[in-house]
UniProtKB/TrEMBL annotation:
Residues 53-269 form the N-acetyltransferase domain. Residues 1-31 are annotated as: Disordered. It comes from the Eukaryota. SUPFAM superfamilies: Acyl-CoA N-acyltransferases (Nat). This is Acyl-CoA N-acyltransferase. It comes from Triangularia verruculosa. Pfam families: Acetyltransf_1 (PF00583). Residues 19-31 have a biased composition (Pro residues). GO terms for molecular function: acyltransferase activity, transferring groups other than amino-acyl groups. Residues 1-18 have a biased composition (Polar residues).
Length: 283
């Protein structure tokens, strides 16, 4: 179980571990990870050329914490340009941040430190990256990528709305502890329990719109039906496969900020079907 809170500057560290029961063969279970959730904020005046600690005062703390993790992983470790780490999708995305406070004794005076993050980008999305394309700051830079790059893939029919996960990052000293799994699970669980969050509302009925509907035979508004996509670094494919994602070979391979990427997809059940949806997540 994940202890998830909304964006806040206070962290719950008051839980006292239970005393071991007599004749109990197992140690008490470790505390659930503390993950803070930040819903889409609209226009953020985040300064992409500045470090997270050098930002306007009105930027939510959770977002600054997410960016501090992303800077350590993507900028410092993978040499991605600082100004390219923040992008337009950050304004409209949901963000989750995992903190160390869940792994300290309640008696510790150490403040919680952000150590992991993930973001969820709602639809609509631009066309899929081109096979062989080289992208810098989400812009195609090579004029002649491989031909016949598909808009319809093995897992996506071009029209179905999908949710894109990304910016999954855990700082180096806390990897290989299963923490990324908690972040991925938190994002997927949230969408499964809020499947209509990003679906557009139908327009108010009026003679004009009703006539247009009759003339056009009626149209269906975009509706999310459980499809997730990621642009995975090739080195991380096996990690995402543990969470149920599968490579879409038809999407080919492309480069983002000098790093080779592939497309991966996962479909989950939503609504009434969710009760039967059993996902297996690795460490």
């Amino acid at each position: 179980m994940i202890n998830m809170t909304m964006d806040t500057t206070s962290f719950n560290s008051s839980t006292t571990p239970k005393e071991p029961q007599p004749n109990t063969p197992e140690d008490p279970a470790p505390p659930a990870p503390l993950i803070t959730f930040l819903p889409p904020q609209g226009q953020l005046n985040y300064l992409g050329h500045n470090h997270p600690l050098n930002q306007p005062d009105n930027i939510p703390k959770t977002f600054l914490d997410a960016m501090s993790v992303r800077e350590k992983v993507y900028v410092q470790e993978q040499s991605i340009a600082l100004e390219n780490e923040f992008d337009d999708d950050d304004h409209r995305s949901c963000h989750w941040v995992l903190y160390t406070s869940a792994f300290h004794s309640p008696q510790t005076s150490t403040p919680p430190i952000p150590i992991g993050t993930i973001r969820l980008v709602p639809f609509p999305h631009p066309p899929h990256p081109l096979n062989g394309g080289i992208y810098l700051n989400n812009t195609l830079t090579n004029p002649s990528p491989q031909p016949n790059s598909p808009t319809t893939t093995y897992h996506h029919n071009e029209n179905e709305p999908y949710i894109k996960l990304g910016r999954l990052a855990v700082i180096k000293e806390h990897r290989n502890k299963g923490l990324a799994r908690h972040l991925v699970r938190a994002a997927i669980d949230w969408m499964q329990t809020h499947p209509a969050t990003f679906n557009p509302s139908p327009p108010s009925p009026s003679p004009t719109t009703l006539e247009m509907d009759v003339t056009a035979g009626g149209g269906e508004l975009p509706k999310w039906r459980g499809l997730f996509c990621i642009h995975a670094q090739e080195d991380a494919v096996t990690v995402w496969e543990k969470y149920g994602f599968r490579v879409d070979e038809k999407m080919g391979r492309w480069w983002e900020e000098g790093i080779p990427h592939v497309g991966m997809w996962l479909r989950v059940k939503v609504g009434r079907e969710r009760e039967d949806d059993v996902q297996s997540f690795g460490g």
